[in-house]
Amino acid sequence: MRLCYYYHKGDEITKYFTDENQLVGDIANFNLGTPASEYLQSITDCTYLTITKKDVGELSQTIIVWDVIMSKIAAKCLTDKVNKISTMMAEDATERYLNFLQNFPNIANRIPLSYLASFLGITQSSLSGIRKNIRL
Fold first, then answer.
1. CA 47, 52, 57, 61: dihedral to nearest 10 degrees?
2. What is the C-alpha to C-alpha distance for residues 113 and 72, in angstroms, rounded to an integer?
C-alpha cells in the first residue's frame, strides 16, 4: 500500500509505502476524528483489516495494556519517519534508490516506477537512468 497526497500544483506525491503485514494509517487525524489529508491506495492485491475509533475505545476498555501498546506503536512510527527523512535528506538519488531496494525488497519490482520516483523525490526519467547505471 502507499500513502500519497496531492501537491498544490496537482502533482501526486508518494509519502511512503508499506509492505505486507504492516500497520498503515493516519494516527493523528484518526485520534482527532478529523478527515485525513492524505490518501491510502492499494498498489497490489491485498487483504486488509480496518479498525474504527469505537473499536479502539472498546479495546482500550477491554485490554489493560492497550494504551501502552498503542503508545509504543506511535513512538516507533514517529522514530521510523524521522529516521527516513533524516537519511533521505543526506543522500543523493542513487543512494536513496539503493536504500529503497534494501528496505523494501518485496515491493521494489511490483510498484509503478512513477510512484517510486515520486517517493524518492526525482523524476521518472532520472530513476530510469539510475536503474540503467546500476545494471551496468
1. -30
2. 33
* Grid-cell match 529503497, residue found: 100
State how far the Cα of 2 lies from the Cα of 25, in Å rounded to an integer: 10
Which pTM does this prediction carry? Answer: 0.75
List the grid coordinates of 1: 500500500
CA 22-127-41 angle, to 5 degrees, is 35
Please give the torsion angle defined by the CA atoms of residues 90, 124, 23 and 32, in that order, rounded to the nearest 10 degrees.
80
d(CA 24, CA 80): 13
Burial 26-44 (b: 16+ CB within 10 A, else e): beeeeeeeeeeebeeeebe
Give the whole-angstrom CA distance, residue 37 versus residue 118. Answer: 17
Helix, strand or coil for residue 105? coil
Which value, to the nearest 10 degrees, does the dihedral of the CA atoms of residues 38, 121, 96, 107 take?
Answer: 50
Taking the CA atoms of residue 70, residue 71, residue 73 and residue 77 in that order, the dihedral angle to the nearest 10 degrees is 140
Tell me the pLDDT tens digit for each residue of 98-117: 988 888 888 888 889 999 99
